Amino acid sequence: MPKKLGLDLDNTNWSVSEVQLVGDHTVGRLTKWLRALGLSVEEGDFSRAQDVPPGILFLTRKRALVSSPWVFFFPQDKVEEQIKYFFQQLPAFKRLRRPFSRCLRCNTLLEKKTKEEVFGQVPDYIYETHSVFYWCAKCQKIFWPGSHRKRMEACLRRWGLLP
Ligand SMILES: [Zn+2]
After folding, report:
1. Is the pLDDT assigned to residue 1 strictly greater than 50?
2. Separation of 50 CA from ligand 1 center, angstroms?
């Protein structure tokens, strides 16, 4: 049984929505999956635990940094185990779930677009078969719910993270 994490949100003045998650390259896949659930995870890196400011929860697999409560260390290798571990340790973050509301690439909140708004900007067969589209203002890209998203949804359900 893994040791209880240092950060205990019930005993701090921080609410879960004020904490910014930051992940380094050692948790790149996890970052994408957390974004898929709608949690905001920025990319960043800290080489010393004392450099992580309060209010940032740094997600990493770098064992050397575990001395701070603002460092969340993942002993697991597999993303499935990492994401389950995260919500086991910090269940309050489940409140922030807004599945598929963020760009997986850059973390920006997606904007809903109507069919009319994307006219001429997506392939014909996509236009004909979809009624909902999303726009990432930073990547300047249009997304639509497709088979990739369905697969991710199925995974998240299997992991008990979506109803
Ligand atoms: Zn983006």
Report:
1. no
2. 30
